[in-house]
Amino acid sequence: MKNPFGDQPVPGSHHNLPERLYKKVSATVGEQVFETMLKACENALDEEHVALSRAERKRLFSEVVKRMMEEMSRRLDPPSKDVG
């Protein structure tokens, strides 16, 4: 339902709610998550004493981020427990 006084949704409306939440959360949390993951990967590589090119580091970071996001997504839908 649209607000008759402008383009903003009526307060309390579910219209486009996922998009609105995404914008708000990603604006505040997205950069923090990215920076935290980047720092954690850099620290882990330092501990491993592995020499990698910038391109290799970028590819490896991308792979780690992808796996982390997949794991987080799986946590949203835990396996159902059979009752019986």
Q: Please count the helical segments.
A: 2
> What is the number of strand segments?
0
Helix and strand string, N-terminal first?
HH
Strand content: under 5%
Mean pLDDT: 85
Any idea what the radius of gyration is? 20 Å
Low-pLDDT runs of 5+ residues are none
**Helical proportion?**
55-70%
Structure description:
With 84 residues, the protein is mainly α. The protein has a domain of 51 residues. It contains two helices and no strands. The model has no long low-confidence stretch (mean pLDDT 85).
In a few lines, what is going on in this structure?
The chain is an all-alpha fold. The chain has helices spanning 17-48, 54-76.
Topology of this protein?
Blueprint: H1 17-48, H2 54-76
Features:
mainly alpha; single chain; 84 residues; 2 helices; 0% strand
